[in-house]
Amino acid sequence: MVRAAEGVKLGDHLCAVYERRDEQLAMVAPFVRSGLERGERCLYILGESTKDTLVASLRRGGIDVDATVSRDALHITGGPRSSLRNGVFVPGAMLRLLSDAAASAKASGFTALRVAGEMTWLLRREARIDRLLEYESRVNDFLPKHDMLALCQYHRPRFSPTIIRGVIQTHPQVVFGGPEEFLKPDEEAEIRRLLRALVDRERFVTQLRARNRRLRDLSRQLVTVQETERREVARELHDELGQLLTAVKMILEQSVRSVPGATRRSLRGAASIVADLIKRVRDLSLRLRPTMLDDLGLIPTLRWYLDQYQSQTGVKVDLRFEGAEDRRFSPEIETASYRIVQEALTNVARHAKAGRATVRLRVGADALSIEVEDRGKGIDPDATGGGGLVGMRERAEDLGGRLKIATSPGAGVTVAATLPIMARRPMTRLHEPARARPAAQGPRSEA
After folding, report:
1. What per-residue string of b and e applies to 260-281 under the rule 16 or more CB within 10 Å gives b?
2. d(Cα 290, Cα 302) in Å, to the nearest integer?
3. pLDDT, tens digit (0-9, with 9 covering 90-100), for 343-367
4. What is d(CA 46, CA 97) in angstroms, rounded to the nearest whole number?
5. Helix or strand holding residue 15 (H, E)
6. For the whole model, what pTM was predicted?
């Protein structure tokens, strides 16, 4: 790009298609410096760059900006509004502006007018650019007649493939990505190659987006299947295996009364083992999928889970909620909320080295907000891509929500999720009307 910027001559119409802003800015200083050395006035039309950014880039390129501006050799301006008519870009109006600018430069003693324009200025003005390609085509004949040369800069990700293909076709010279991509009018094969590359890139991006959507759909289906299987296994453990073990326990307890002392002690020991096994099966069933999540809803299930969690880990948890008690949400929202809290508190127990955590739930007009906060050792912000954290984020995003993790070493971790509830099923009370408690005023807190 630098070679192209330094090598242009009077009447040239050069196009730079760039991917990154550093590529574009690296080309600006050589282009302007070359014009100043030839006694030309340089006009720069800002688009996505700020004036300060441009000036800094020119100074890094060895240009004394203050001295150049003071002798009227450098003009920096935004996109000219007078080239727009009712928000539509008008090629003739823009060409008249350039003609007047060129005449002014010549009248001021400069040899020519050198123009560099960031074409994103049209996007910033939210103008219709239907006639942009017409303008670029007319510039080819316009420049040699007015002692001018021009560099049109196009930020490829900001323009459609149709526009990019058009500007490549209308510009006599195109530079894309570096000196090896410098193209001249007689290099038709090279132009076709570049066009194919641009089209292939857009096709690849489209395919990648489609595959990402399919991957997200598969992830959502996998979570649904996983929860369904957990529900079925949990019920089978509780209803079938649990009942069989209960029957065995009852038989053993009845047999104790009709056997001698030594055998009685053995049967009592066996009954005790079966009782412990029943408890383990029940706990395993609840860990897989608490049936109360389906039957009673989110808040009762979280109360039960926090009781179990505190007794097992020793970590004290404050549960605070606002507008969430006695509320039912869609099964997807309740499941995702429960799993996010469960995973976040599992991380607290495993990694945080914290003695206390806080769980907050707040129901707004259209969203359920969840926060799990600890004051433990924290984690490196760059290390928030672990499997559990990724799983929480995917659960939130699959429902159209978002999940953020705020942390720093020594300052604890806050997991904050927001889940939309506009599509929730009609709310139902958890209690019969006669037993319903008054709605909570303000946040509720439980230790």
Report:
1. eeeeeeebeebbeebeeebeeb
2. 10
3. 899 889 888 888 899 999 999 888 9
4. 16
5. strand 13-18
6. 0.44
